[in-house]
């Protein structure tokens, strides 16, 4: 086996650990929490299926790549739920710094050249500036909303989330990349908040 | 919400069920079996990372799309382990027919046009003729081998698999798309079979 292949297989073996990182959101049947590996599959599938929602300048294949890679840092850092601690933990400087260290370690397992290439894609996603990153980030945010809705409230119940909080913590970010999609999803989920006295 | 978007979100919601389809292969730490959604993420990541192994005519983005979609039929049919019933169940005509019915139902949830497009990608994967399908199929076969090896034998123990059986049921299929990769993986895993008296 070449060194190059050994490094690539080493990275892929390390990536298996993402299957043991659990998120706040549960499966629709509430049987268990979703893990970050299967969440990554979901959002990559979203990027494929919802591609006609993408605006100009979005590279769908690159968005899918971003979404396959975006959560790998959680192998070291864990998932930080968006509704935890009133929404403040998720974007803290400490979490950001820990995720950057994790990205350096994980992508650093890959051969030279490929390591830098994959890190650049992850950084583009994190930066959230390019149309492709905005598209990918919007999908990453909207899938848990639909999952919670499909599961009768899911982590909205656990974290006592109101419709205004959803709008503020999640909606604004989805709308940045996919305004029409957020408009539609917003109307779709609002009745749940109304009927639970949270809107 | 437009009908088109409602259909797409309906498909994505149905796809969530793949997270509850469990495979024969366990995670490396043997804590639980792998499900087909996270397996799909793994093999899509393999397609991305191992792209320098791909031969001429392989479209990496299309291979990733294939691998995101390839197991959805298991929502209706379940996973048929490759080593079950001496390797004969996996490729039976009855399974193939059931999977084709499942593909028609599942992709049929999508809007017209997109349904046919996704079904065509799934059929290309199933056909295993194009360079892209051969690449994707080889990765789909090799990931469980590396997972079993990382997990100290995993489902090889359960199904009492010998090195010759691995070669015959799996190796031949991996080598069809990625001969050099199989050569390397074969040498990498052989010592396990030797040390367990199965080679």
From TrEMBL, chains A, B:
<protein>
    <submittedName>
        <fullName>Hydrolase of HD superfamily-like protein</fullName>
    </submittedName>
</protein>
<dbReference type="Pfam" id="PF13023">
    <property type="entry name" value="HD_3"/>
</dbReference>
<dbReference type="InterPro" id="IPR006674">
    <property type="entry name" value="HD_domain"/>
</dbReference>
<dbReference type="GO" id="GO:0046872">
    <property type="term" value="F:metal ion binding"/>
</dbReference>
<dbReference type="GO" id="GO:0005737">
    <property type="term" value="C:cytoplasm"/>
</dbReference>
<dbReference type="InterPro" id="IPR039356">
    <property type="entry name" value="YfbR/HDDC2"/>
</dbReference>
<keyword id="KW-0378">Hydrolase</keyword>
<dbReference type="GO" id="GO:0002953">
    <property type="term" value="F:5'-deoxynucleotidase activity"/>
</dbReference>
<feature type="domain" description="HD">
    <location>
        <begin position="15"/>
        <end position="182"/>
    </location>
</feature>
<keyword id="KW-0479">Metal-binding</keyword>
């Amino acid at each position: 086996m070449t060194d190059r292949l050994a490094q690539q297989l080493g990275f892929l073996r390390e990536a298996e650990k993402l299957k043991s990182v659990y998120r706040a959101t549960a499966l629709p049947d509430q049987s268990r929490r979703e893990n970050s590996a299967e969440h990554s599959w979901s959002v990559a599938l979203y990027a494929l299926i919802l591609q006609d929602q993408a605006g100009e300048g979005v590279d769908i294949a690159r968005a899918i790549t971003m979404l396959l890679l975006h959560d790998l840092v959680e192998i070291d850092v864990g998932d930080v739920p968006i509704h935890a601690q009133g929404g403040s933990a998720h974007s803290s400087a400490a979490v950001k710094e820990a995720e950057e260290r994790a990205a350096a370690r994980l992508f650093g397992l890959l051969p030279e050249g490929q390591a830098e290439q994959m890190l650049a894609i992850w950084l583009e996603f994190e930066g959230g500036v390019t149309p492709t990153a905005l598209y990918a980030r919007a999908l990453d945010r909207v899938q848990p909303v639909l999952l919670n809705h499909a599961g009768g409230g899911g982590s909205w119940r656990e974290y006592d989330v109101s419709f205004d909080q959803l709008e503020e913590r999640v909606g604004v970010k989805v709308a940045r990349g996919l305004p029409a999609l957020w408009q539609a999803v917003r109307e779709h989920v609002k009745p749940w908040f109304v009927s639970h006295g949270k809107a």
